[in-house]
C-alpha cells in the first residue's frame, strides 16, 4: 500500500509526504505570518492631549504616504492650519466647528474613517480649553479720571472778565459828547442790510431709495461653511455650495459673520458689498453695522 501511494506521487521525498500539506500552502502560511507579525500603526489615544493627538495624526499621514503640500493643494486649507493640527497647537486653530471641518477633509484625503478621530479631537479640545482656563485672571489697575473742575473754574473767571470789559466799553459809548454822527456811507450800508432779500426757489430733494435689508452671502468656485448671527434673531449656519447664494432677511439689524474660507465668499448688506474677506483657506470674521435706530 505504501508503494502504491508512492506511485501516485505521495513519496516520502515530496513536500506533501513530509508535512501533509499541498504544495504552495507553505507560501500562503508564510505570507499570513508576515501580515500578522507586521507592526501596526499606533491608534490615537482615547483621551489624548493636543500634542498626542497631533503626533498620531502626523504619523497617520506619513504612513499613508500623503504630503502636506498635497492636502493644501486639494483642500485649499492654509498650511499653517494643517501644521497646527499636527503640532497640537490648538491656540492657532479657529473655533472648534471650523477645526473639525478641516480635520474631516484631512482624513478624507488620507482615506481614514473620521468618527474615531473626531471623537478623540473633541476630547483633546476639552483638555485644551481646561488648560487655557486654568491661568489666573490678571486684575487691571483702576482707571483714574482726570480732574476737570480746575479748568472749568478758570474758564468761568475768563468769561466774567470778558463780560466786564464789554460792559465798560458800552458805558463809554453811551456817554454824551463821545458819540460820533454816522456818515452817509454808514447810513447807506444800514439801509441795504435792512432790506429783505428776495427768496430763491429751491428744487425739492430727490428721494433716495432705501438700501436692501437682506443679507446676501455668495460663494465663488468652492463651497464654504458660513455662520451668521443677527441681533435679536439668533444664530444660523450652513454649508453654502459653490457658486450659489444664501439670503437672510436681517431687517437692518447688526450682523456678525464667520466664514470657513475667506477667499471664496462675498457679502452684500444695506447696499454695501464686501468682496474680499481674506486669503483662501483662512477663517474670517466680519461685523456689519445695522441701520441707526434698529435694535
What does this protein look like?
The protein is of the alpha+beta class and 295 residues long. Among the domains are: 50-132, 434 Repressor (Amino-terminal Domain) (Orthogonal Bundle), CATH 1.10.260; 214-288. It is built from ten helices and eight strands. The protein has a four-stranded antiparallel β-sheet, with no helix packed on it. It has a four-stranded antiparallel β-sheet with strand order 3-2-5-8, with no helix packed on it. Strand 6 and strand 7 (272-274) form a beta hairpin. Residues 1-42 have low confidence and may be disordered.
**Could you estimate the helical fraction of the residues in percent?**
40-55%
Say what the CATH topology of the domain at 50-132 is.
Answer: 434 Repressor (Amino-terminal Domain)
Shape: elongated
What ranges have pLDDT less than 50 throughout 5 or more consecutive residues?
1-42
Identify the quaternary structure here. Answer: single chain
Radius of gyration equals 41 Å
* Architecture (CATH level 2) name of the domain at 50-132: Orthogonal Bundle
- End-to-end distance: 104 Å
- Find the structural class using helix and strand composition: alpha+beta
Quickly name the level 1 CATH class of the domain at 50-132: Mainly Alpha
With strands numbered from the N-terminus, the spatial order across the biggest sheet is 4-1-6-7
Give a quick account of the main beta sheet: strands, pairing sense, barrel closure: 4 strands, antiparallel
- SS field, number of helical segments: 10
Looking at CATH, the homologous superfamily of the domain at 50-132 is lambda repressor-like DNA-binding domains
Strand content: 5-15%
Amino acid at each position: 500500500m505504501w508503494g502504491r501511494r508512492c506511485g501516485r506521487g505521495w513519496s516520502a521525498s515530496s513536500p506533501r509526504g513530509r508535512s501533509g500539506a499541498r504544495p504552495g500552502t507553505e507560501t500562503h502560511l508564510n505570507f499570513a505570518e508576515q501580515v500578522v507579525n507586521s507592526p501596526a500603526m499606533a491608534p490615537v489615544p482615547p483621551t489624548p492631549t493636543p500634542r498626542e493627538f497631533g503626533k498620531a495624526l502626523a504619523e497617520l499621514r506619513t504612513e499613508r504616504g500623503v504630503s502636506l503640500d498635497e492636502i493644501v493643494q486639494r483642500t485649499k486649507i492654509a498650511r499653517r492650519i494643517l501644521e497646527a493640527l499636527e503640532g497640537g497647537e490648538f491656540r492657532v486653530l479657529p473655533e472648534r466647528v471650523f477645526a473639525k471641518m478641516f480635520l474631516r477633509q484631512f482624513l478624507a484625503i488620507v482615506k481614514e474613517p473620521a468618527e474615531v478621530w473626531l471623537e478623540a479631537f473633541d476630547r483633546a479640545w476639552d483638555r485644551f480649553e481646561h488648560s487655557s482656563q486654568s491661568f489666573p485672571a490678571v486684575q487691571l489697575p483702576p482707571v483714574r479720571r482726570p480732574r476737570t473742575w480746575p479748568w472749568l473754574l478758570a474758564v468761568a473767571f475768563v468769561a466774567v472778565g470778558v463780560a466786564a470789559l464789554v460792559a465798560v466799553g458800552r458805558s463809554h459809548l453811551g456817554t454824551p459828547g463821545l458819540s460820533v454822527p454816522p456818515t452817509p456811507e454808514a447810513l447807506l450800508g444800514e439801509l441795504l442790510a435792512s432790506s429783505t432779500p428776495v427768496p430763491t426757489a429751491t428744487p425739492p430733494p430727490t428721494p433716495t431709495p432705501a438700501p436692501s435689508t437682506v443679507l446676501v452671502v455668495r460663494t465663488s468656485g468652492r463651497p464654504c461653511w458660513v455662520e451668521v448671527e443677527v441681533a435679536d434673531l439668533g444664530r444660523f449656519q450652513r454649508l453654502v455650495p459653490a457658486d450659489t447664494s444664501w439670503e437672510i432677511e436681517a431687517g437692518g439689524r447688526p450682523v456678525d459673520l464667520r466664514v470657513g474660507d475667506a477667499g471664496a465668499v462675498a457679502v452684500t448688506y444695506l447696499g454695501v458689498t464686501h468682496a474680499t474677506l481674506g486669503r483662501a483657506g483662512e477663517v474670517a470674521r466680519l461685523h456689519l453695522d445695522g441701520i441707526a435706530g434698529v435694535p
